[in-house]
Amino acid sequence: MSNPTITDVTCGPLVAGGDALVRSEGEKVLFVEGGLPGEQVRVEIDRDRKDLRNGHVVEVLEPSPVRIQAPCPMFHAGCGGCQWQHIAPTAQHEFKTGIVVDALRRIAKIEEPNVTFGGAVPDFGYRTTMHLGVIDGRAALRRRHTKDLLPLDVCMISHPRLEELIVEGRFGEATEVTLRVSVTTGERIAYVKGDIDDVKLPDDVVVTPNGRNASIHEDIAGRRFRISARSFFQSGPASAELLANAVDAVVPEDAGWIVDAYAGVGLLCGVVGEERDATITAVEQDRSAVHDARHNLADLAAEVIEAEVATVALSGETKPDVVIADPSRTGLGKSASRTLSRLGAQTFVLVSCDPASLARDVNLLAEAGYGLENTTVLDLFPQTHHVEAVSTFTR
After folding, report:
1. How many other CB atoms are found less than 10 A from the CB of residue 131?
2. 182, 216 in Cβ contact below 8 A?
3. What whole-number distance in Å separates Cα of residue 2 and Cα of residue 45?
């Protein structure tokens, strides 16, 4: 086995994906995992490709003033669940805002984007849902730089009642488990892939091998939502409320028809529709989430359509006033942006969980006649590089 390539560098800004960017004259672009802007670090090269290299910090030679000692022992054991525990929380907010600004400048070619930071959930204890691997009967996450599973002795970002299940639960011969708890009601469920005969959890936990007939309920912004085991939801109720309120703040009060694309369990249109005399059209392709959305929006003038957003056809004599879209990490893409733009809404609210896909979608919406007005950055995933952004466009 050849010796690893080691190099000393001074880190540049953090970019989408959470790595530090290093540009040196005559050298390939280098992305450094674990580096912070301005730091001098020793880096081991992991991948050397034609036009760029990737590496990770093996020694900090001159640390950044915002570098801290990571508090979680699992971080030091190599857990890949939290990538940014070595960064002071307020600095995480600044870096995430900067990453969004960089993506809009570099990819969307907007010289001075209007980007502000809109808030964060608590630094720890915020997650109420986690999808985990199982090794030797124990809940586990991937080790950094490998596909190997690391059993968790503690999980500081999880809610205490979720952490209890992660640390003390035993899952027998199962291969994966999704654990979900409710802050509102105390309900707890375990969606187990594999044999459930040897699963050992507290008596109050509903264990399901197929995700059916198992759900929790959370109160978000004054509304109660049912969330089934197989339905997507935000990392926790604090994240859901912060996001929903940010979307609600940019939707006109007099909106009469609101289309919610990628509606999930109906979180965003449910909160937005609560105080408005509006007709809601929610579009979602996941069957479990559709069932939840129909339950959650039953008291509103809402229609829930089970369909893939890019293929849905909405007809009527009028145009919707607002389109809300919360796509997956890959963003809207050409097909969905074209479909939603054709609806002709005056206001378009885009929720993005990846800065690069946000910037690409900005370009696609610009081609359809939508101009970006502002972007609000939210930290819904402290201790990680993941960033959420709510962007408002007008036609």
Report:
1. 12
2. yes
3. 12
pTM of the predicted structure, to 2 decimals: 0.94
In single-letter form, the type of residue at position 181 comes to: V
Helix (H) or strand (E) holding 389: strand 388-394
Q: Which two tokens stand for residue 252?
A: 């006109």
In the predicted structure, residue 1 carries a pLDDT above the cut 80:
no
Q: Which pLDDT does position 78 carry in this prediction?
A: 92
**pLDDT per residue as tens digits for the range 249-294:** 999 999 999 999 999 999 999 999 998 999 999 999 999 999 999 9
Residues 337-348 have a mean pLDDT of 96
From the list 129, 125, 119, the residue with the least C-alpha distance to 96 is 119
The half-sphere exposure of 115 on its side-chain side, counting CA atoms within 13 A, is 24
Query: Distances from the Cα of 42 to the Cαs of 9, 34, 140, in angstroms?
Result: 7, 11, 29
For residue 256 the two structure tokens come to: 């009469």
Q: Which domains does the chain have, with CATH numbers?
A: 6-67 (2.40.50.140), 93-122+220-394 (3.40.50.150), 129-214 (no CATH)
Contact 214, 174 (CB under 8 A): no
The pair phi, psi for residue 341, each rounded to 5°, is -65, -35
- Please, where are the H alpha helices in the chain? 73-76, 89-106, 160-168, 237-250, 267-274, 287-296, 333-341, 355-367
In DSSP terms, 47 is beta-bridged to 54
Who's near 179: CB < 8 A, 6+ residues apart? 129, 130, 132, 139, 162, 165, 166, 169, 188, 189, 190, 191
pLDDT in tens, 235-248: 999 999 999 999 99
For the stretch 173-213, pLDDT in tens is 999 999 999 999 999 999 999 889 999 999 999 999 988 88
Sheet holding 6-10, edge to edge: 6-10, 40-48, 52-62, 29-33, 20-22
pLDDT tier at 26 (50, 70, 90 boundaries)?
Answer: confident
Rg, the chain, Cα only: 22
Q: Alpha-carbon distance 76 to 38, whole Å?
A: 23
How many Å apart are CA 28 and CA 20, to the nearest integer? Answer: 14
